[in-house]
Structure formats: structure tokens, C-alpha cells
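Let us work through a complete example step by step.
Step 1: write down the sequence.
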Amino acid sequence: MRAAKAKSAERGESLKALLTRAVEAEVGLHAKSGPAKKRVTFPMFGDPNGPKVNVTSDSLAEVELDEEMDRYYRSFPELDPRKLHKKTGNSR
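Step 2: predict the structure and record it as C-alpha cells.
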């Protein structure tokens, strides 16, 4: 899941958009290109020999919340608790 999140961040899109595009490509629903010509082999990213990831609605919601919080803290870095800890040197 982290690899998917990193890939979506590299492309400047949400994880939901990346996963939606991947599913559309697999199922052949992409309106611009018509039906898929070639089958996609999963996983489309990450290490095929690596650990399997169980994607649930809860895990997707958590990732979306993380992305929203990252965007929020980029807009208001002075409120980011991760940076406040680094500045003060306190640990929880």
C-alpha cells in the first residue's frame, strides 16, 4: 500500500485516482482508449515477490485521511505536530 501511495504522490494524484485508473485499465472501462488491448498483470507496482497487501475500505479510508492531512499540513506547516516535535526535541 505504501508503494501505491508513493507512486500516486510521484504522479501528483490521489491514491483513489491511481487505483481507479488501474481497475479501469484492467476491466477495459477507460473511455478514451476503448477496451483494453492487453491484460494487466497484478501487482502493477511494488515487488511481486513481496508481502501481499489486504486492501479494505478501512485501509483506503486511512490512506485518504493521511493524504488529506499531508495536504493540510503543507498549507499550514506551523500546525504540523510532526515538525513541532522535531523542533522541541520532546518525545511522546
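Step 3: interpret the result. The two ends are 26 Å apart (CA to CA).
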